[in-house]
Specification:
Elements lengths: L9 E5 L3 H13 L3 E5 L2 H10 L4 E5 L1 E2 L2 E2 H10 L5 E6 L4 H9 L4 E4 L4 H18 L4 E3 L2 E4 L4 E4 L2 E3 L3 H12 L4 E3 H9 L5 H22 L4 E5 L3 E5 L2
Parallel strand pairs: 1-2, 1-3, 3-6, 6-7
Antiparallel strand pairs: 4-5, 8-9, 9-10, 10-11, 12-14, 13-14
Helix pairs in contact: 2-3, 6-8, 7-8
The structure holds calcium ion.
Length: 233
């Protein structure tokens, strides 16, 4: 889903512990991100005020101040940088405070670098998607511009007609939709009606199966002799 080249991604590592900082820098540079770092609260404050980052990796205990204050500052500055907290303190309180202050994720030290890389990748993906138009119905998320659908965080691959059908259902939840309406919405009126009904039947059947397999919460119910209805909780 990354449309931007990964080398354009800027990451700021805020960590005072030298060896950990260097290890993270090396690991993320290997993933071809542009990596900057700050080792004190003050230095971090300068960086976040002057630049935008795609992802900030933030230690809580810093010389000169708390990482939580950095989060507050990001909020004050209306910054949209994704933040992953890395903290030695496996304290639930810190975690909740951090997440409440807008952090996207939380990683407890010590962690595997592979885990850090995975979290960074997914934080950046979420950030990229959050600026776009999206339609959400329970755990179904549609990005109309990209014609992509996610159930929870997993992409659901649909053909073009299945996508159009799902789009129509998600924009009309809990509404009884006749086969006529559906055929017109998805095919326009240039298709022979009898054919289009057969087609709808098979496409909806496939779509229902795919949604169910992917664990989608809303369900497309068939209303005998009439059409369909997408039922959300
Ligand atoms: Ca520290």
């Amino acid at each position: 889903m990354l449309h931007q080249r990964i080398t354009d991604m800027k990451i700021l590592i805020i960590e005072d512990e030298l060896s950990l900082r260097q290890t993270m820098i090396r690991s993320l540079e290997k993933e071809r991100y542009l990596v900057e770092s700050a080792s004190t609260y003050q230095e971090a404050l300068f960086k976040i005020s002057d630049y935008d980052y795609d992802c900030i990796i933030l230690d809580i205990m810093l010389p000169g101040g708390s990482g939580l204050s950095i989060l507050e500052e990001l909020k004050t500055l209306h910054k949209k940088d994704s933040v992953i907290i890395v903290s030695a303190k496996d304290s639930l309180e810190d975690k909740i405070k951090g997440l409440n202050l807008g952090a996207d994720d939380y990683l407890t030290k010590p962690f595997h670098l592979a885990e850090l890389n995975a979290r960074v990748k997914s934080a950046i993906r979420r950030k990229q998607q959050s600026g776009e138009l999206q339609l959400v119905l329970e755990n179904i998320c549609i990005y109309p511009d990209k014609h992509s659908v996610f159930i929870n965080d997993n992409e659901l691959i649909l053909n073009r007609k299945e996508f159009d059908l799902l789009y129509y259902f998600v924009t009309n939840p809990d509404r009884l939709i006749s086969k006529d309406t559906l055929a017109e919405a998805v095919w326009g009126d240039y298709m022979d009606q009898a054919d289009s009904f057969d087609f709808i039947y098979s496409q909806v059947k496939n779509l229902r199966k795919k949604l169910k397999t992917a664990g989608a919460l809303p369900e497309i119910k068939a209303v005998y002799g009439y059409g369909y209805k997408m039922v959300a909780e």
